[in-house]
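Form 7-S
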Amino acid sequence: MSIQVKTAMVLAAGRGERLRPITDRIPKPLVTLGGRTLLDHAIDRLETAGVERVVVNVHYLGEQIVAQLDRRNSPKILISREPSLLETGGGIVNALPLLGSEPFFAVNADSYWLDGTVSALGRLAAAFDPETTDAVLLLQRTVSAVGYDHEEGDFMLDPLGVPARRGESEIAPYLFAGIQLLSPKLFVEPPPTPFSLNRIYDAALDAGRLRAVVHDGEWYHVSTPDGLALVEARLELRRTEH
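Output:
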C-alpha cells in the first residue's frame, strides 16, 4: 500500500561547475531539454504524482530560478533561499520548516527521467513503509544511464531492496538517480551544516532503515556540455523513432 506524498523538495542551489561555460550565465536547473527547463521537467513529474507543494532551494543565480518559477500556475511553490551553499543535506535542513512533518520527495533539479510502466515516484511511495523505512532511493543501472561518464557506480542491492555502498576497489551496478523519498525523522539531529545527504543515507543504512528501488524507465545524466549534447541527441533519436 503506497503512502500519499503531497510535498516535495527540488534541490536547485548548486553551481553546476562541470557544465561551464553554459552555467556561467544560467543556473543548471534552467538548462533546457525539449524546449523545457530541467527544473520544470522535475516539477511536472512531481505534480503528476500528486504533489501539491514544492519547496525549491536557491543560491547561485537564484533570482533567475525564482523568475522561472513565477511563470508556473501550479503546484504551490515555496522558495528556500541559501545565503551560502549548504550542500544537499544542509539545504533540506534549512527548508524543513516549509516541508512539514510527513515524508517528502527530494529531487535533484538536474535529474531527467522517463518513467517505465509505473511512475518512478509512485514506486518510491509504494516501497516506503513508515514502520521499517526512513528513506527510499531510486537507483539506475549504470550500463543504461545516458550521459553517465563514470564506471564505478554507487550501490549494490540485495533481493529485499536493501542497498549497500560499494567497496573502495569494487564496481557497483547501480548509481543514485537523484530521486528519493525521505522522512523528516532523518533530520532530527543533523550533522553541522553544510553537509551532504550521503551522511543521512549512511546513518539510515546503519539503522537498517534505508531501501532502494531500481528505475525501470530511462534516466539521463546532464553533467557536462558533452553529456548534454549526448542526451539531446539521444532524446531527438527517441522522438524520431516514435
